[in-house]
Amino acid sequence: MGKFVAVKLNKWFIENKIIFLGDSAHGIFPFYGQGMNAALEDSKCLAEMLESFPTSREKAFKQYFEIRKSQTDILFKLSNKHFYILKNKGKTILYNTKYRLDIFLHNIFPKFWFHEYTMMSNSLVDIKKISRRLSTQRLYILFPLYWVIFLWVSFIEITDRIKRNFAKKI
Question: What's the rounded Cα separation, in Å, for the pair 46 and 43?
Fold first, then answer.
């Protein structure tokens, strides 16, 4: 059985000679679908830094690292969380209810509420902004209207499961 490995380097360059991009610098679990996007963003950022510092590759490498490291650390955390969810929680009623609720709220309030995975996979928004947005959305969970909708969506999820189980028996 294979193992999944995540790579997280503390430094992505060696002087002005070697630079690490993509999975060699910050390989993440493949379940979030963002590895290639991160590598392309690395390439773009590195090209911009080399253009900004044409006489000093070391400065360009350092600036590239400072810009991209914080973003890929967030992606690393989200990827690990998503892997854990898929491995452990993906079939629970609570997770499926929250997933449906996120989609439901996004359909009703498309400019206000976003589902995490949808936001990450279909967005050109900076990952730091996405992370702040997700934190803000988590605060709304404290509001009563959220819980009323959550219970309603939970009821739908439970009745769907009952129907599926009943259909299997027939």
Answer: 5
